[in-house]
Design goal:
754 residues, alpha+beta, Immunoglobulin-like, ten-stranded mixed beta sheet, six-stranded mixed beta sheet, 9 helices, 27% strand, elongated
Length: 754
Amino acid sequence: MHSKHLTVAVAALAIAGTALLMGGCVPKVWWSPGAVVEAIALGEPRTLEISLTPTEDVEDVHIRVVPALAPFLTVEPASFASLTADTTVTLDLTLAASDVADVGVYDGVIQLKGGKKGKSTIAKPLPVTLSVLPAKCSSSTDFPNGVAAGDVDQSSAVLWARADFEGIVRFEWGTDPNFVQIDGYTDEEVLVEVQSDKEEFIPSKVVIDGLLDGTHYYYRACRGSCPSIGQLECDVRGEFRTAHAQGQHGLRFGVSSCFDQRGGDLLPFDSISDVPGRNLDFFVSLGDNVYADASKDAKAYRSKYRDSLSQSSDDNHLARARAATAFFATIDDHEVDDGFAGGAPPPVPPPWAEPKDAPFCKDGIECKVDEDCGRSGGECLALPLDINRCWGDRNCDLDFVNETDAFNDGLEAFQDYLPIRDEFYGPNQNMRTRDRRKLYRYREFGKDAALFLLDQRSFRDKAELTHIGRWEGGRTMLGAKQLADLKSDLRKADERGITWKFIFLPEPIQHLGSDLVQSDGWPGYPEERGAILQFIEDKGIGHVVFVSGDIHMSVPNNLVYQETVNQTARFSSSWDISAGPAAHAPLVAKAFSIPGLAEKEDWEQNGLIEGAFDALLFAAGKPLFGLGPEVFRPGLPHEGPVYPLQNYNRFEPRATLLQGQPLDRLGVLQSWAAAYHFSWTEFNINRVTQKLTVRTFGIRYHPKKDMMDEEPDLLVKFELPTPIPNGDRCLRDIQCQSSNCCLGTCRKNACLLD
């Protein structure tokens, strides 16, 4: 019996829980539930389960539906030759209303007869209230992009819906999945913007508070009002859980990034179709929520989100995932423009940004750039934003990119379409963060985990291509305020005895080969990167896992770092586990042309991909052997801009890989990465042991929509070890130059990675 589909009226429960006399006789059969209160839309049949439990043997049992309900309700099986005492029998109750049925509320009963000739009443009639609703009551009409909840903490959440009508959206919420009783509601007027005589309906959001911690909530959005299920004109439903305030309860969450909606080829995001069934506490989108580079204005940016959340191929997996659990989200670059740096000065417009012909056009079409930095007169090539569009006002004379119109338009659309709070830094911060949007989040989930969600775009310095240049001038990725908040919250989580600390960041903090290919990522900001990793070591903060996106493959990695340009490299006690892409050409598909790769089995693909990585290392003069410990040892000087990849061998004995084939010569399972797939990654903390299990699910990469429509498979699975109890910390190992605290093994004067 599914709690989402059956409503048990409170009064009926009270009656069903007592011995009811019928003509002085105790019923011989009991219904479960004691009443049915349901709603169906015209032309949308569905089936639910009810059950019978006899208290004694009965014969010739017949089920009869009264005439008022007969057009809408059938029961299978409808009769039994006999029923045995204390044996529960399940019945299928099918509800259906034809397209021409009258909308309204229908009351009646289901009767149960038995005994000789099947005429004796052997159970109290089962009360049924059935509401027949208009056919338009679906997520594809009034609420075409579904509903969402997010930004949850222990007592509050954000509810979201985009209505496609003028008027009022009502949000209702509570712990009853059928909304017979609700905890609260609020009415929000739909905001309408009109441009060029065209209406645009802006999404509605509301912050609800006063919630109970660690509680499963249900919510719905309705057109106008929804005082009762019988009077409901239209509703779309979702659910979420609040964070626990104390204790160990276990935690399960999902992560992905890079949702490429362009052209619709990769919609409806089949790679995440299994998310609603994974019973997640929350899901984190790590940037590139859309690919909206250099859109004309906020309206154009918003249109990309509508494309991403619209039904395609008769499904809408992203909208279903957002309705199934709470969402957190941050930005990367494509929400505004490829590779932008919010803390850098706006690019100086080139000479042709004046009102004259621009030389970069398709097929000889003349493109003109007007004085407001817009485009007209043809389709311009996809050139960098500082060529195709002015960043801010006409003179582009602002101090930072994060002050410009383009940045604000992109962030406005992001805030409009994600279920997150509108937060801002105060007026007294430094110039980069003063009065700017605050996307950084810190959340605690009991003793199981803490969430740290970073904004790596809004305040960063411009990317620097030279290795030496990256170490100059105190360059920052996060900005001073966000960096200080991260350090403070890390210490807070550690002092409170929280086991796992997950730092969510749009781009990997791990090294992936040459720094030249990561100039836009953390290796391009080595001083701040080293300061964060060293802070974690200095404070003895254990079980820190960086969870990243952007690189279009799922891969775990250990971390090495330096605090100064000439310092010998050190190992960190933290990990980086990248996730995704949900829908974008995987790194391997873009970087390598391997004959027959698409036709290989997953494990065969991994072998070919590892071979391609080995070839890169060989070209760089590095040892091979599966990227094992021989590649890079602590204490050796850094040899230039090329770092090794540090794959699964680096985890031993910190992690045990569980999924994949074939075994290597050491018996280590080799499925350590999903590099040729659209995917998402699940993290699951065991309530008792606190062991962390990581799984990646996904579908094979396909460049075209007509090649997709797959069910996600389990691609990767590994575990990180059971934590040593808080306070049982190891001394710093000088030889390894890393704190080996809480890693499952403590050895003094010996490097765990040898």
